[in-house]
Amino acid sequence: MSLSRTAAKRIADHVLAAAKLDEVTVECTASQDGNTRFANNEPTTTGDVARLGISVTATQYGRSATVSGNRSDKAALEALVQQAEEMAQLAPVDPEHVPLLGRQQYARVVARDRATTRLGGKERAVAVAEVLAVGDAKGLRTAGLVSHADRAYAIANKAGLFAYHASTSASLSTTFRTGDGTGSGRASSVSYRYSDLDAGGTAAVAARKAELSRNPQELAPGRYTVILEAQAVADLLGFMMWSLSTRSADEGRSYFARPAGGNRIGEKLFHDRVTIKSDPSDKAHPASPVGRGGLPLGPQTWIESGVLRSLTCGRYWAQKTGVAAVPYPSSIHMSGTDRSVDDLIAGADNAVLVTRFWYNRMVDPRSILVTGLTRDGTFHIRGGKISKSVKNFRYNESPVTLLKNVVALGKPQRVEGRFVTVVPPMVVHGFNFSSTSDAV
Amino acid sequence: MFTNVYSRPMRSTRRRFLASSGLASAGLLVPGRSVLARIPGAREPAPSSAPPSGGHAHAALADSALLKDEKLALHALDAARKKGASFADVRLVLWRRENLGVRDDHISRISRSEEYGIGLRVIADGAWGFAATNLLDRTHVNRVVDQAIATAKVNAKLLKRPVQWAPAPAVLGTWVSPYEVDPFTVPLQEKADLLIQAARGALGVKGVRFVRAGVRVLREEKLYINSEGSRLHQMYFRLNPSLSATAVDRRRGGFASRDHEGQPMLGGWEHVAESRLIEDAPQIGADAVIKLHAASVEPGTKDVILLPSNLWLTIHESIGHPTELDRALGLEANFAGTSFITPDQTGKLQLGSERVNLVADRTQPGGLATTGWDDDGVASQRWDMVKNGRFVGWQTTRDQAGWIGEAASRGCSYGDSYGSVAFQRMPNISLQPGPEGYTTEDLINATEDGIVVSGRGSWSIDHQRYNFQFGGQFFWEVKNGRLTRPLKDVAYQANSVDFWRSCDMLGGADTYRLGASFSDGKGEPGQSNGVSHGCPPARFRVNILNTGEQE
User: Fold this and answer.
1) How far apart are CA B331 and CA A301, in angstroms?
2) Do A439 and B464 touch (CB under 8 A)?
3) pLDDT at A106 over 50
4) What is the pTM of this model?
5) Which of A10, B89, B381, B535 has the smallest C-beta neighbourhood within 10 Å, fewest atoms?
């Protein structure tokens, strides 16, 4: 157990009882993580690591300070409180300070899988062996990571707020490279339950991509219709999710700013078929119901049939502008269909199939222009089939284009991402590849 | 494309340079000129060994909170050996962090944090094991020993080649990064006042709507003990001051941001004072407004003069990462990627033009990766990486040296906390100044059609480090040896080898500056380290993109 509700409550109670100031908040994070890496067809490094973080924020007359430590004995907790209260006296006044959030109701979310909390190096080695066997059998160079975590988060304050969320997570990713160094394929599997990971299946997908991607041919850069696998969609979409801020839009420094002032909530900005929501209570893909500062996270619609429905909004800005506070989400669910990637390929002609994107960086927040490169399986599709492996491309493109130029959507799936991310593969026209790369 | 103007650059005076730019603000063209002035050595290439510890060093270490847990650390080593480890090392690591942020004219964040724990690394049956805990008692440390040994032994059954552990002498030592003022002794009020004053200076400029300022302070302390008899106690202060202004044109619906070009540094609080945030603030604000209304760049193949505040990151990405031996050999294939350089190209690959010399070191005064010893217990050193354009040296650790037939490690091992296993991380890697002693003005005067790029913008490079695209903070057009006007929407794109081979002019020793990344990512699970790169301004041939042409 990384930190039980009872243990978290005990820490919180002790901190709040020791506090002299009226405005004090305590947050705890605890984790027990395990990982095994492998490369060149053998295990490399590994780790089993216990961590704890306790942070105390104290405020008086709008002066705030936060002090964090990683010990939970009484003396250490009292020292944190004392330091935070002392530092708060010294801090300048923050005119954007908001009063403490009171008691809240949170959705019931089951996100901690007991079996996943009991794993160690032995269990990881079984999964690693399964992946290595695929590489050895096919004569491919194998690398990857198996990891799992048991985590807990709690927040409490002197106004009666208490929230606790425990979760597990597990992931397996693997990259196979061909012996001649001209082909590379990657696949991954992510869930809150270790038993959901399919080591053999994930390895088979990555191995097939490695073999198919051998000897890539150069395709001229330009605008293409692309078939983006779900991971590639997530890699770009993340930039837009982080841009969904009411304040930045209201202040005129965001794509979502309305030129005359204010923001573009209510405007039809994207294709009819684009709907993006969040829901921490999703049974298959649970996420935290506790948002930043203890704000409850419930179902939230960001984009509905192409119309911008909401932007995130911090408590200060919400109060100032008279709107509801909307915390950053813990999950993203983008709607799709029941079509597989193979179905999307079968329906395409003269398109580029992208497995994933890499080294993605914001270039211009005005248009959410992002640059990065394709990686680990990029193919030219002709007449509904993979016709050849092509060299990787650098792109300069915005997730806005992605959501405007929709041709088709596939079946949503869980992929790697900072949020719990469930998105469909997409077919999109007019995607801008600006140069090619020799990288394999 | 190269006329004889390039081969005989003209000297020019500073006055002529300013006159040619037509703007007093051209002073900021070489931003940070004063920033590093007093960091000892930060304007000179690295020496062969780390600078001596600061004067207060031994007092700081004698009072260390880590010493009370040394017995526990020795117990862990002992228990690991008894359970079958052929090698073991233990790190007690304490991090203190302080973070102050200012939004517009008020404080938005004051926080301090502390993280402390113990990490044990073992080699058992030829395989690595590692486990760590924040709970410093026998029960939890015994559990860590069991986890590390058990995982090593089970992984050993899947191993094809046991770990080859290069020898290193057993050393007893202490080292503290040189500093004048312990940043944690400076009153918070004084720190806050400095940032607020800087922010107000930028906010006072007409057209500037938003400002952010901040300073992050890190104190890292570790006690490393290994089963070979080494015991190394070290402490570091690292600081990152920042200031950024945003101008908004509501009528036409545009905005532009301008970051100060001061760099993170290994040093004391004096570095923040010397970063001149307050003095430079009005110019940072004015630059944001200039940038908002600047002419949009004409794309095409052009010369670029990259100033140190921009070039350091290009060195980092296009030379730093591809010369990590673990990358080149496939160990990072599942995440960061591999490399365009392979070990058989050592001493053969012409990576850059004749004038390109790059040196790796963990000895550079002010360098974020500078240390006394690494996390394998190996002394810091300096070595050639690229000599007259030819690739000659790798970054290695003790478990990598044998892979390329080298007898000893280059000392590049680092774990970013008690809970992170040490592995190969980047040393400081720096481009050496040219022998001609050119000034920045000389480079400009010698350029017919080009762009001067300063500061760090957006950056992206592929997973083998061929194709990169970088932005910057500020851009000046150069026509016929003169600065003509500020530009915006500039990104330069090139292939790493083409880029370095096109390098045809370097500034001299007086133009050498250190730039740095406070948090360079690598590995799975991800780890972060600080690393610095020194360089003079230099000229290259690249593909210029207009990033504002997108919808």
Assistant:
1) 41
2) yes
3) yes
4) 0.94
5) A10
Please confirm whether the linkage preceding B525 is cis (ω < 30° from 0). yes
- Amino acid sitting at position B506: L
Task: Flag if A439 and B189 touch (Cβ within 8 Å).
Answer: no
**How do beta strands B358-361 and B428-431 pair?**
antiparallel
**Chain B residues closer than 8 Å to A439 by CB:** 337, 340, 462-467
Q: Is the pLDDT of residue A340 over 50?
A: yes
Q: Is the pLDDT of residue B12 over 90?
A: no
Q: How many cross-chain Cβ pairs, A to B, lie less than 8 Å apart?
A: 268
Q: Exposed, middle or buried: residue B245 (CB in 10 Å: 0-12, 13-18, 19+)? A: buried
For the stretch B438-447, pLDDT in tens is 999 999 999 9
Which pLDDT score, from 0 to 100, does residue B511 have? 96
Calpha distance B129→B147 (Å, rounded): 8
- CA-CA distance, B487 to B307, in Å (whole number)? 16
pLDDT in tens, B454-488: 999 989 999 999 999 999 999 999 999 999 999 99
B319, B385 in Cβ contact below 8 A?
yes
- Residue B81, C-beta contacts closer than 8 angstroms, at least 6 positions apart: B88, B227
pLDDT higher than 90, residue B252: no
Strands A331-334, A276-278: pairing kind: antiparallel
Backbone φ, ψ for residue A170 (5° rounding): -150, 145
Do A64 and B463 lie within an 8 Å CB cutoff?
no
Between the alpha carbon of residue A3 and those of residues A11, A42, A312, B39, the distances in Å are: 10, 34, 30, 45
Give me the phi and psi of B153, to 5 degrees please. Answer: -70, -35
pLDDT digit string, tens, across residues A108-140: 999 999 999 999 999 999 999 999 999 999 999
Distance CA(A183)–CA(B485), nearest Å, equals 46
